């Protein structure tokens, strides 16, 4: 055959060229040993492989060689992305209502054709999470066009009724730290087709507005509750309140990152810490272009500093209380803020009934501790660690002062409190030094007269042995931080603890890491409503107001009730002695 011959000829010709006798072999008769390691000094001996695309691209950004060289010897292989076509995927999960699904199956059973293999079920209509199913037979005329397998809310306005799922899914956004994208993430992880962010935010906006409405009404109810409470115990129609402002960003000197602030007003009469009223400041506008800020959610001018909102908001909420005409504010407790005492004083003058201003007791105690901690003692006992000693002494004095004040508060009237407290505080240093001569007269906390008395609570477990100069230093520090004027200001021993715990809840619902341009006010109201009723009850009330109908044995209802019971259990457990001891030793 001619083809075969030609190939043979080719082979021969090649052989002739390559293997002529007498030629010097290319390796000059040197034999390479198999398995010998490549010589790293000679780059030619290293096996070259293609790098991965990611590594190559990362190396290219940091490559410092000449412009026409590459960081690696070879380029990575080009990869072609496979384009996936959008198609109905039967592996997806869908949410269906159980009773609606039952109805659908019952309808399908009516199909009387012999050949069941020709029946097909498909999703006929999709509205976000809400799905309609279709079943049809190719042979006969059996066709269930569109069967809704979701429940609808009670119709309130014109247009199609909104699906239960759409209203319900965003409840979690209002009642947890979750945002819209987190909700999408959760649904996507369940392999459910996610609704659009626009749909979610429309619902969240609507529900936030609803929440504001509900909480405003709840706060009025709270005020009426206190009014009736006062009636029952025969008090005048007055209320003691605490207030404190929180910012979405900590205020720093020179630069202000904060744009939003929240200020609640909580009563101290009933012991239930009911929220009387609240207010927020928001510097952010949620509209995109040319906003005159009449319609948007911006409530605070950009020119003013956010830290000045403390006074403004306090005035606003006091005015609100006045406008409701249900209760009169008798006293306001807040942390030591110059703005607030001025606002309270001026508002009292303006409204005609004087309001007393108290400072937060706990904040003042912290200041005392700081003062003592910053003292420099001239001489200490040999072997004492300076910092440890100061720290322990500060803690000791703080808890002693606290105990004295609490006990004096129990037995004294408003007028005597400051003088009694002052003599007790003056006595502390001599008592701690082992001189109990005046303790019987001045102290309500010293227990040197008891057999069980020991000095374990003091630094290094022994009485203080300080020079006269150092004792004077402590006394003057105490005098400075707890002067008669200050003692009068904290004489109610009120704290702003409840405000702080509410702040915590607010910034759980509206995390500081996310900007809530539009819904900050709504989320604050949501947090307040939750603190009044409990998260579960509040969610139920919100759901009801949105027209979500559910039975008492629905999973939603059961979970919400259970959530409140668990929260109550934990809050009570926190008050027990066992928990406090465990927490002290760091076991919780
Ligand atoms: Zn059929
Ligand atoms: Zn605006
Ligand atoms: Zn004593």
Annotation keywords:
10% strand, alpha+beta, three-stranded antiparallel sheet, extended, 588 residues, 9 strands, Mutator_transp_dom
CA-based gyration radius: 38 Å
Mean pLDDT: 84
N→C terminal distance: 93 Å
Described by the principal axes of the CA atoms, the overall outline is extended
Domain Mutator-like transposase: 93-446
Pfam families: Mutator
Protein name: Mutator-like transposase domain-containing protein
Show the helix and strand layout:
Blueprint: H1 2-18, H2 53-62, H3 98-109, E1 119-127, E2 130-137, E3 143-148, H4 164-169, H5 171-175, H6 180-189, H7 197-232, E4 238-243, E5 246-247, E6 260-267, E7 275-282, H8 309-324, E8 328-334, H9 338-351, E9 356-359, H10 361-373, H11 386-411, H12 414-432, H13 439-442, H14 468-481, H15 484-489, H16 497-509, H17 520-533, H18 535-545, H19 555-575, H20 577-584
Parallel strand pairs: 4-8, 8-9
Antiparallel strand pairs: 1-2, 2-3, 4-6, 5-6, 6-7
Bound molecules: zinc ion (ZN) (3 copies).
Structural description of this entry:
There is one protein chain. With 588 residues, the protein is of the alpha+beta class. Among the domains are: 94-150; 199-360 and 499-549, no CATH class; 380-489, no CATH class. It has 20 helices and nine strands. Strands 4, 5, 6, 7, 8 and 9 form a six-stranded mixed β-sheet that branches. Helix 10 packs antiparallel against helix 11. It holds the Pfam family Mutator. InterPro entries: Mutator_transp_dom (IPR049012). It comes from Mytilus coruscus.
């Amino acid at each position: 055959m001619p083809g075969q011959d030609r190939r043979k000829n080719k082979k021969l010709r090649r052989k002739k060229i390559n293997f002529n006798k007498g030629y010097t072999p290319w390796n000059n008769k040197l034999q390479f040993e198999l398995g010998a390691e490549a010589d790293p000094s000679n780059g030619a001996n290293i096996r070259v492989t293609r790098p991965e695309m990611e590594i190559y691209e990362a190396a290219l950004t940091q490559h410092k060689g000449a412009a026409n060289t590459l960081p690696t010897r070879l380029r990575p292989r080009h990869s072609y992305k496979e384009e996936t076509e959008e198609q109905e995927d039967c592996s997806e999960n869908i949410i269906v209502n159980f009773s609606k699904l039952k109805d659908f199956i019952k309808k399908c059973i009516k199909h009387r054709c012999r050949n069941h293999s020709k029946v097909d079920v498909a999703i006929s209509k999709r509205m976000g999470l809400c799905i309609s199913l279709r079943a049809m037979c190719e042979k006969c005329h059996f066709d269930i066009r569109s069967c809704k397998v979701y429940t609808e809310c009670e119709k309130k306005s014109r247009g199609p009724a909104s699906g239960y799922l759409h209203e319900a899914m965003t409840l979690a956004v209002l009642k947890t730290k979750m945002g819209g994208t987190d909700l999408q993430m959760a649904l996507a992880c369940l392999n459910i087709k996610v609704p659009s962010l626009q749909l979610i935010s429309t619902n969240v906006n609507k529900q936030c507005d609803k929440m504001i409405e509900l909480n405003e009404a709840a706060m009025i109810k709270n005020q009426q509750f206190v009014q009736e409470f006062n009636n029952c115990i025969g008090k005048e129609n007055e209320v003691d309140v605490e207030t404190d402002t929180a910012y979405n960003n900590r205020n720093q000197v020179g630069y202000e990152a904060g744009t939003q602030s929240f200020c609640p007003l909580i009563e101290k009469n009933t012991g239930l810490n009911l929220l009387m009223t609240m207010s927020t400041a928001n510097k952010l506008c949620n509209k995109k272009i040319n906003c005159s800020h009449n319609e948007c959610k911006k409530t605070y001018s950009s020119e003013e500093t956010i830290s000045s909102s403390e006074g403004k908001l306090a005035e606003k909420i006091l005015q609100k209380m006045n406008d409701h005409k249900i209760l009169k504010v008798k006293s306001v407790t807040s942390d030591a803020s110059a703005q607030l005492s001025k606002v309270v004083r001026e508002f009292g003058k303006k409204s005609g009934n004087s309001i007393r201003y108290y400072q937060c007791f706990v904040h003042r105690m912290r200041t005392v501790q700081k003062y003592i901690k910053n003292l420099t003692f001239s001489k200490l006992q040999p072997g004492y660690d300076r910092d440890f000693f100061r720290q322990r002494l500060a803690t000791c004095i703080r808890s002693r002062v606290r105990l004295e004040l609490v006990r004096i508060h129990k037995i004294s009237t408003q007028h005597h409190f400051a003088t009694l407290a002052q003599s007790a505080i003056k006595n502390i240093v001599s008592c701690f030094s082992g001189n109990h001569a005046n303790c019987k007269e001045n102290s309500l906390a010293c227990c040197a007269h008891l057999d069980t008395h020991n000095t374990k609570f003091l630094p290094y477990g022994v009485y203080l042995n300080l020079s006269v100069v150092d004792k004077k230093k402590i006394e003057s520090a105490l005098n400075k931080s707890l002067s008669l004027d200050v003692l009068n200001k904290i004489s109610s021993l009120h704290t702003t603890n409840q405000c702080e715990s509410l702040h915590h809840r607010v910034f759980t619902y509206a995390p500081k890491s996310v900007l809530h341009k539009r819904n900050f006010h709504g989320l604050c109201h949501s947090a307040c409503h939750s603190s009044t009723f409990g998260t579960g009850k509040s969610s139920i009330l919100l759901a009801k107001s949105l027209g979500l109908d559910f039975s008492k044995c629905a999973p939603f209802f059961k979970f919400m009730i259970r959530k409140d019971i668990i929260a109550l259990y934990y809050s009570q457990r926190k008050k027990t002695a066992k928990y406090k001891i465990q927490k002290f030793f760091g076991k919780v």
